Amino acid sequence: MTPRGDDGVANRLLLALPKASLRRLQPALELRKTTKGDVINRVDRPVEYYYFVNSGLISLVKLMRDGRSVEIGVVGIEGFASPHTLFGINRAALESMVQVPGSAFRIRRDDLIRFMAADANLRNTLEQYALFAFSAIAQTAACNRLHYIEERCCRWLMIAHDSALSDTFQLTHEFLAMMLGVQRSGVSIAANFLQKAGLIRYQHGQVTITNRRGLEEAACECYAAMHKEYERVIRAPRKR
Hints:
Mean pLDDT: 89
Distance between the termini: 23 Å
CATH class of the largest domain: Mainly Beta
Number of helices: 9
Largest sheet: 5 strands, antiparallel
Number of domains: 2
Radius of gyration: 17 Å
Low-confidence stretches: none
CATH architecture of the largest domain: Sandwich
Number of strands: 8
Helix content: 40-55%
Structural class: alpha+beta
């Protein structure tokens, strides 16, 4: 489980900043409760606030013309949604909504850009995260095309587990289906398989991780690959 700083910060991107950079940011950061279904950003709309996830999970969703939607990525305690709008046109490329409730530090977009202009360390960290976010979306596309549903389900459960900061968290069949790009019936089969294997307990829209090591062994390569990539591009906390 990710440790929290003395000030209650669990977001890994904020924790990766030099202490001086985080101190400058903190007066502009507002801790907010996030509720399932909250829409953080709407596609093609300007981004007014950035939400640095402190617990829970934000889903990045692609909406289709016929009304269907599919998740193409998630944001947990490793970062924040829509980092591309820091470096160009302010228009959200994807719908961002809360899927696992928790909390987030909110900051105005204009304020964060102003802090970046005055702080090279902050700017470098956020640029590196934008690179990671693009890689994560590409990894998800490859994962959805090449890996079995049970492997992908294990991957997403571990991502949710990391950011929920709890062994038990809300996760509906509908959300899992959107995450995995499959029909709800396929999710039921995968969840039942994992439950019978003793890896999870699932009931009434709640998942309990009962065997994390087993999930790691059953997952595809993508979870470990993206964890390694994050550690590579987001450096360990610099000297304070």
